[in-house]
Amino acid sequence: MKFHYSIIFVLMFSSFIGSFAQIDRKNPPKGDPPSVIRISKPQVFRLKNGLTVLCVEDHKYPVVRLSLAFDRDPLSQGDKAGIKDIFGEMLRSGTKKHTKEQFDEEIDQMGTSLYSSFSRIYLSSLKRYFVPSLALMNEMVLEPRFDNTQEFKKLIKRSLTKLEMSEKDPEAVSARVRNKLYYGNHPYAEYASDESLKNIQLKDFRVFYEKFFGPEEAYLTFVGDITKEEAYKLAEEYFSNWKTHPISSKKYQLPLPLSAIEIDMVDLPSSTQAVINVGAPVNFKKSSPDYFSASLANRILGGGSQGRLFLNLREDKGYTYGAYSSLIPNKDIGSFRAGAQVRTEVVALAVEEFLKEIRRIKEPIEEKELTSFKNEMSGNFVLALEDPQSAARFIVEEFTESLSENFYQNYLKSLQSVTASEVTQAAKKYISDHLRVLVVGDLQKIMPSIKKMGYPVHLFDKFGQPL
Questions:
Q1: Residue 143: which residues within 8 A CB-CB, separation 6 or more?
Q2: Which residues are 328's β-sheet partners?
């Protein structure tokens, strides 16, 4: 028996060594061909009042999810900035048939999830509770009272407290000033202030609702255990009497792009660290032909913990806990942003490393690095599809972002087809050489080293006003 086992072992080991020796380690194994994502095609119809309704059937689980998303042009809040942030909570603060407490109790008893904001409402319910849940959502959307004084005062007080706390937060100050410098008088530059929050009155929510909350710019998406016939019937029953309103649209001028790198600084003596923000507005849309090339360029630069910025400023230099970048698409105006929170004494050194990596991403990249980030982005996309809210958002985006019909079905294929030269060209196109470098921190400690860099320096207050 021992002899036979020895012979078998030797034969198996020899076979293993033989097959191992035949592996060609000079050429990496070829990966599987790019997958095509199976996203069900939505059934689409439109109600007479202009509401677009989409339905995607998925009968695997007895759950129905409903999303109401608005596709509005940028709108200004004027001297009541901050009203959009609390509009969603005021929307569910009471309806014609239910007080806030009654409304919340019924939602909780059914185990329904309901989220509401100015731009989106999301509902998730078991199939057997979906119709009563939808009826409550319908009340919230079509019959809000906006008369809950107690809830209104609580939300304003909370917003004022949050604002007060943010005044000493360098990240919050940096984001506010950055938007002001990027967008000027555009609505994207608006921010809530102590004065604007105190300007908001209870009656303003009704005015805002009647002016901006209508069906013509809305997309109602059913996803889950529901048929297209059921979806059409429910949409007609609950939303056909939603009154239309005139759509207001206004074009806003953006500040002119910079002609060279500029350093903008905000003094925050209480800050023990400094926040660096590098970037600029950019005409980048999800419908852009080079969307995938540009997205890969940003991912390589600073899209995560394997990005060049992170590996340089954290892993190599130890200046920060994390350095990242983002290339944000927007059908109005997008932006490129890169940033980190760093130790005060290394601000100038960190800025130089940011600019070095931004220049380097416009140089040719190796195929190995590109393949690694393609795989990372592919995996993240597949994971995102597991979230029903993401799937619903993808469906609506094909309409609102003017995407090709099979944009998401072909997402992985489009990603894998990008070449290294296309990434380089996209980086040159969307990551400008003329960037704003915004630094928020203790200027008394930072300024001497910043001045030695030789770039123009401008000072601003915590609200983006020049000093």
A1: 95, 96, 97
A2: 335
Task: Read off the pTM.
Answer: 0.87
CA distances from 435 to 188, 260, 447, 453 (A): 18, 7, 19, 15
Burial class (CB in 10 A: 0-12, 13-18, 19+), 122: buried
- β-pair partners for 121: 68, 116
β-pairing verdict for 218-224 and 52-57: parallel
Q: In CATH terms, are 43-239 and 262-460 the same topology?
A: yes
- Alpha helices for 29-148 (secondary structure H): 83-91, 100-109, 127-142
Question: In sequence order, what DSSP letters do the residues of 156-181 get, joined into one string?
Answer: HHHHHHHHHHHTT-HHHHHHHHHHHH
- Helix, strand, coil share of the chain (percent; to 5): 45, 20, 35
Q: For each of the chain's 467 residues, which pLDDT tens digit applies?
A: 444 444 333 334 344 444 444 445 555 445 444 455 666 778 999 999 999 999 999 899 999 999 999 999 899 999 999 999 999 999 999 999 999 999 999 999 999 999 999 999 999 999 999 999 999 999 999 999 999 999 999 999 999 999 999 998 999 999 999 999 999 999 999 999 999 999 999 999 999 999 999 999 999 999 999 999 999 999 999 999 999 887 777 788 888 889 999 999 999 998 999 999 999 999 999 999 999 999 999 999 999 999 999 999 999 999 999 999 999 999 889 999 999 999 999 999 999 999 999 999 999 999 999 999 999 999 999 988 887 777 778 888 988 998 988 899 899 999 999 999 999 999 999 998 899 999 999 999 999 999 999 999 999 999 999 99
H-type helices in 286-346, by residue range? 291-302, 308-310
CA distances from 403 to 79, 165, 286, 394, 412 (A): 35, 40, 7, 10, 15
**What residue segments make up the domains of the chain, in order of their start?**
43-239, 262-460
What is the spatial distance between Cα 385 and Cα 422, in angstroms, rounded to a whole number?
Answer: 27
Pick the CATH number of 262-460 from 2.70.70.10, 3.30.830.10, 1.10.10.10, 3.50.50.60: 3.30.830.10
> Rounded to whole angstroms, how far apart are CA atoms 166 and 462?
11
The yes/no answer on whether domain 43-239 falls in CATH 3.40.50.300 is: no
Tell me how far apart the alpha carbons of residues 51 and 136 are, in angstroms, rounded to a whole number.
19
Separation between Cα atoms, residue 252 and residue 183, nearest integer Å: 9
Q: Which two tokens stand for residue 201?
A: 């009155």
